[in-house]
Recover the amino acids of this structure.
């Protein structure tokens, strides 16, 4: 609710603060139990920062994060440690998040040790079971991360996230680094385990195509702001925001009979250190009006479809 993350820009001889990057600038949304919320945007739009703010891997400058009636943003360190059993993250690059000197068994056992779960024997058993869940075998337990392919490493990353039996998984571009053929396998695995473990997902991606089939609702971010959020089907069939429309026009359709006109977005994405006034998209929008240059558009709720654009002011 009202999440903000401003990073100071320092420079000069004395490292004085010279400005700030508004990486996340007043973002609000909810996620329902058991659903998948996709969050999409170009690199630098603040989607990863938002994901990290949610579980307080970084601290918010302002705003609140509430999980099952508990306010994460005001928790003590001890409470936070406990809640991290329930909320886990899967990262884009599993290689960076898996200790290369630890065997898969050690890697998967670690979250259980951290949270004081089970006896040594129970933990070993759970590691072996989890390897099967993600489509690997218990004979992989003694191997090391470098002995696996990218897709297998992401399966290990997912297994690690599942070890504490979390309720919510925040996946930050979990398939972006993988070959397209492998992406579908990992997405299917994530869908299967969502059902099996009754998980809630926040699925971050830079590509609307990737989140389409896994998300119940999708939000689109631009320069630190959430500019549109709707049910998945609604967003793909009937988007409102000019930026979303342009992004969607660039997603390839597999049917060669459907012709689609790509809407080009003019110009470069502005620097988040110096975002345009008013609507952050106004420097690139073909529908720009005077008000767009001065006034930040308020979020409008059109039958549960949220959009922040002056074209839809009530
Ligand atoms: Fe375009 Fe104005 Fe809407 Fe921004 S508010 S997307 S500039 S029409
Ligand atoms: Mg990112």
């Amino acid at each position: 609710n009202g999440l903000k993350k401003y990073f100071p820009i320092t420079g000069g001889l004395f490292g004085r603060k010279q400005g700030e990057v508004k990486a996340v600038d007043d973002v609000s949304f909810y996620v329902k139990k058991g659903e998948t919320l996709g969050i999409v945007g170009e690199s630098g739009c603040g989607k990863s920062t938002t994901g990290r703010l949610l579980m307080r891997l970084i601290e918010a400058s302002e705003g609140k994060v509430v999980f099952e009636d508990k306010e994460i943003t005001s928790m003590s360190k001890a409470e936070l440690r406990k809640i991290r059993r329930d909320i886990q993250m899967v990262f884009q690059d599993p290689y960076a998040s898996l200790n290369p000197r630890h065997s898969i068994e050690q890697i998967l056992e670690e979250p259980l040790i951290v949270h004081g779960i089970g006896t040594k024997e129970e933990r070993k058993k759970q590691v072996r079971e989890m390897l099967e869940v993600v489509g690997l075998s218990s004979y992989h337990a003694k191997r090391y991360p470098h002995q696996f392919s990218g897709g297998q490493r992401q399966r290990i990353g997912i297994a690690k996230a599942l070890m504490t039996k979390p309720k919510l998984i925040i996946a930050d571009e979990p398939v972006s680094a993988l070959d397209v053929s492998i992406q579908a396998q990992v997405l299917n695995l994530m869908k299967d385990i969502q059902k099996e473990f009754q998980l809630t997902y926040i699925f971050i991606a830079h590509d609307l195509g990737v989140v389409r089939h896994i998300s119940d609702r999708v939000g689109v971010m631009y320069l630190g702001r959430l500019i549109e959020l709707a049910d998945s089907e609604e967003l793909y069939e009937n988007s409102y925001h000019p930026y979303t429309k342009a992004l969607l026009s660039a997603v390839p359709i597999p049917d060669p009979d459907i012709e689609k006109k790509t809407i080009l977005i003019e110009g470069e994405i502005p620097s988040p250190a110096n975002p345009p006034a008013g609507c952050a998209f106004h420097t690139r929008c073909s529908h720009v009006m005077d008000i767009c240059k001065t006034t930040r558009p308020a979020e409008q709720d059109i039958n549960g479809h949220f959009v922040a654009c002056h074209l839809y002011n009530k």
Remarks:
- The chain has ten helices and twelve strands.
- The mean pLDDT is 93.
- The chain has one domain: 3-86+166-312.
- The CA atoms of residues 86 and 166 lie 4 Å apart.
